[in-house]
Amino acid sequence: MTDQRQIISSHLRTRRDHATELTQDYVEAIAELERQPGGCRVRDLARFFEVSHVTVNRTVARLKRDGFADAEPYGPVRLTEQGRALAEFARSRHEVVFRFLLALGASPETAAADSEGIEHHVSEETLQLMADFCRQLNPRTEPQQLPDDH
After folding, report:
1. Within 13 Å of residue 109, how many CA atoms lie on the same side as its CB?
2. 33-49: per-residue pLDDT in tens?
């Protein structure tokens, strides 16, 4: 029975992770695009994710509803303080996984592609182990404490 509970728990965690994956991807992209001249617009996100404007508009509406972004029709999309915090949290996770994959010998291209998916599904415990492993390989790296989960 314990194995059954572990399987169910694992499935529930994966479902929860999928629910936040899109939000994290969007806030990361908005944070990056906000730094570009002209800021972040719906058309920029549509190009970035290779999706339609309608898809982006729906997602941005959810981000607004959940307090992660502000946007006016035909205006730039901006992260709220909560959105910026989530973007930093996601970027930090991505960076740990990316560095870990590089340490294992993955090419930068492979590490970049793989870390994009892994970052959303790895537990805090495993992520901390990855960060510790990288620090052991390169002790000059500043100690990295992962941000609190959001």
Report:
1. 0
2. 999 998 999 999 999 99
What's the angle, vertex CA 46, arms to CA 45 and CA 50, rounded to 5? 115
Name the burial class of residue 3, with classes exposed (0-12), middle (13-18) and buried (19+) by CB atoms within 10 angstroms of its CB.
exposed
> What is the rounded distance in angstroms from the CA atom of residue 140 to the CA atom of residue 29?
30
Distance CA(25)–CA(72), nearest Å, equals 21
User: Contact, 120 vs 16, CB < 8 A?
Assistant: no
* Judgement on whether residues 36 and 52 belong to the same structural domain of the protein: yes
Cβ atoms 94, 115 nearer than 8 A:
yes
Provide DSSP, 81-142.
HHHHHHHHHHHHHHHHHHHHHHHTT--HHHHHHHHHHHTTTS-HHHHHHHHHHHHHH-TTSP
Residue 108 within any structural domain of the chain: yes
Residues 46 and 74 in one domain: yes
Alpha-carbon distance of 146 to 150, in angstroms, equals 12
Record the pTM. Answer: 0.76
Is residue 150 one of the residues assigned to a domain?
Answer: no
